[in-house]
């Protein structure tokens, strides 16, 4: 079949375009890399609207449960030509922690992260302590192994909340006499949606979320059990921020120790030297 002059010129222009795109050997271009092709379709993040609940059922400890922070992302990975394995999921780090339990005029106990407290690091990993650097390894991650011939779609999700126990009595005494008078907590976290190449450790930050959990509980230790504690603030937590520009992950957020293993319980009397009640596990 012979082409007319106009058709021949059109075909020649198409060849020039593909030549400019670097596809001179084939009309079909090279597949894009994982870095170029991964698409975050949707990201959602919230903190439940219910207030912190207080449990006074024990005569040894007060327990409270904060609302849940939740994050989820829908991700699409087009066909991967290379023989690569990537894990996509959530990584979290604590970058601020105040956790004070006051015992009237006696002093206070506090859970502390020494390196964070002393400004030796920007953040401490909040991994589950097993699957570093991931927050978890169930709904929190998904692994894509190339080569693949079809699109891969998946959702990764995580949730976090606090459910601690605080002794009614001064933690350095053997007595359970109730003296706990207030609890204050203020913690901040950064949570990243990340893709990591399992072979090369190449790390792509896909989304960054910041969130904070605060509370102030007032306690009257002279009242009967079940009537002592009252949540002062906040009734509703401020909602997380999904950042428009991603933040890099500090090195400490990727490695041991995690926050649970690094924290220490201190007793800080009104007068006298501080005492380590529970040392760090790591």
From TrEMBL:
It comes from the Eukaryota. Keywords: Signal. Residues 1-26 form the signal peptide. The keyword Signal applies. This is Protein FAM78A.
